[in-house]
Specification:
This protein is 49% helix and 6% strand. The protein is mainly α. The chain has one domain. It has a two-stranded antiparallel ribbon. The chain is elongated and about 65 Å long.
């Protein structure tokens, strides 16, 4: 993860969220690409619950990691949990990809990714305005 020193912990949180959303998008795209592959098991990436556990409580001081070998700082969740969908769609080929559900998940994930990009972009713009003295 990049160092977001000027953007603070919220910038680090948003950057981590973007990486996880991109990873989820890649998994959904793989599911869609394999919709007709016999025996393929659709996969899901879940991370929201674990990511929410990394949020600091109001009484905690922020931590900073100066070396990659140190314990991760809050907001760093490098992996989510990948699960396979075992329930096969009744097509007779043991494939568990439901194309309509995958397309719906892809759209929802893309919207949330775009929202996170706009939020991080707005934060960077505000910081630039402060630096420029506007």
């Amino acid at each position: 993860m990049s160092d977001f020193g000027l953007l603070g912990s919220s910038g680090a949180f948003k950057a981590n969220l973007l990486e996880l959303r991109k990873r989820r998008q890649d998994i959904i795209a793989a599911n869609i690409a394999n919709a007709d592959t016999p025996g393929y098991k659709a996969r899901r990436l879940s991370f929201e619950e674990e990511l929410s556990k990394t949020l600091p409580r109001g009484d905690e001081l922020p931590m900073r990691r100066s070396m990659a070998g140190h314990m991760p700082t809050p907001f760093e969740l490098e992996d989510g949990e990948i699960q396979e969908v075992e329930t096969a769609i009744p097509k007779g080929d043991m494939n568990s990809v439901d194309l309509e559900q995958e397309m719906s998940r892809q759209t929802a994930n893309q919207l949330l990714y775009n929202y996170a990009v706009q939020s991080l972009s707005g934060q960077i713009k505000k910081l630039k305005m402060v630096i420029d003295g506007q």
